[in-house]
Design a protein that fits this description.
The chain is mainly alpha-helical. The chain contains four helices and two strands. A hairpin with an 8-residue loop joins strand 1 and strand 2. The chain is globular.
């Protein structure tokens, strides 16, 4: 059941919670600063940066799960497509979602959908070749 759940919805929900509770300005607030020799002020990690890193980790997990060819994988791809369409609608229609951070999250959902379908097609093609009768 957990493999059917489109995990890319989690960063989208976190963004929505932060955007509606604290406002979109909270995405650019610096959480902490790491001292660097190259810059006197150091490198500041913002809330949006941290959310994007989390989104990349979730996207990696989705890639690892997209190699299946079962019905749960197909349902996961369909739900991932719905997550992308919702994210696209939010980006285009709701002002709080018209930010670079959300745009990158939305592109991650698109990559999840496209890569999921491609990986599933390649895996099923490989299964078909292995399961064939050897050209007889």
């Amino acid at each position: 059941m957990f493999s059917m759940f489109p995990k890319m919805i989690v960063p989208i929900i976190i963004y929505a919670l932060v955007a509606f509770i604290a406002g979109t300005g909270a995405m650019s607030s610096v959480l902490f600063t790491i001292p660097m020799m190259s810059t006197p002020d150091g490198w500041g990690l913002t809330t949006g940066d941290l959310l994007l890193v989390f989104g990349l980790i979730v996207l990696f997990i989705e890639f690892m799960q997209s190699s299946g060819t079962g019905s749960t994988t197909i349902v996961n791809h369909a739900l991932s497509m719905i997550v992308f369409v919702i994210a696209l609608a939010l980006f285009l229609l709701v002002g709080r979602f018209a930010t670079s951070t959300f745009f990158i999250l939305m592109i991650m959902t698109l990559i999840d959908v496209m890569a999921g379908f491609v990986v599933t097609i390649v895996a099923s093609r490989r299964d078909l070749a292995v399961g064939g009768d050897g050209g007889a």
